[in-house]
Amino acid sequence: MTKLLPYPYTKLVKKIFFTLVLFCFFLPLGEKGKVLAATLSLNPGSKSVNVGEPFTVDLKINIPPSEGATSAQGVFDYNKNILEFVSASNGNFFNTVNSRTSYPSDPPGYLNVAAAGTGTGQEKNGNGVLAMVTFTGRAAGNSSLSFKCTSGGAIETGIFRPAGASYTNIVDCNSLANGNYVIAAGAAGTTPTLGPGQGRATCDRCGYCEGGTKSGDWDKCRDCIYPGLTDTLTGHPTPAPGKSWTVLGCLSTTPGGFVQTILQFFITIAGGLAFLGLLAGGATILTSSGEPDKLNTGREIIISSIVGLLLIIFSVFILRLIGFEIFKIPGFS
Q1: Residue 29: φ, ψ to 5°
Q2: What is the pLDDT averaged over residues 268-287?
């Protein structure tokens, strides 16, 4: 019969066992086992089009709630003989998008699409579209759109979180999936004929498409989203950031602009009611025929309207003090 280990040795074996269990449990939580969950992706990841036919690829971003970033960029290689870069426009995630392909140091078939938010202290997470990138099939063939991670030790593709005076890249470049796009040849020596809605700039954000008709409020929408332009389908313009055309008119989609719009709306309504109160009080006094009750009622209405008007005027300063100085709410500065 096997003899059991003496008590001190049994206790030692138990300590070693529990130490190994704890080590295996907490090891993945260490910095070496940390997984960077922020991602960039292409949608669609593959597509087939004809020579001369445009197509748009969304550069999508996903940042987990535990992280936050103020900027991101996708850097790509592609076959410039197969694909022709047309434009990059704003998505719905960050405020501004910039693209470049023409720096003297950039090789042919290089594309950098960068987007930024409002800055440090305004880190953002969640998912959305970082940018919408449009290409045209230039010649028959097959071209990939490949993420470039590093060049000469410098980070290229990345999602960047402020870290003191510098930034930390929170995307794992090894997890990025490249795109693949096939351009089919048309008839020799011809270019496909494009119908309405199939040009490079097919439709604007005001609901007008090439070959269609413009709505009655198209001019107002254009002045809101594309200020200073006469035709939004010329030159592939970039929409003004933070603006949206709605049934209520031109509204700001930034937190600060939206707060200011709401405040202006309610202050205007309240001011109008105070003015109507003054008119009602004055009318009550004029039609009182000297009756004390009506005179007092009219006087109280006028005093209440004046006090309300003063409160409305000073409420702007009170809200600014509480919202900006104390709670730091965007839009009160």
Answers
A1: -85, -10
A2: 88
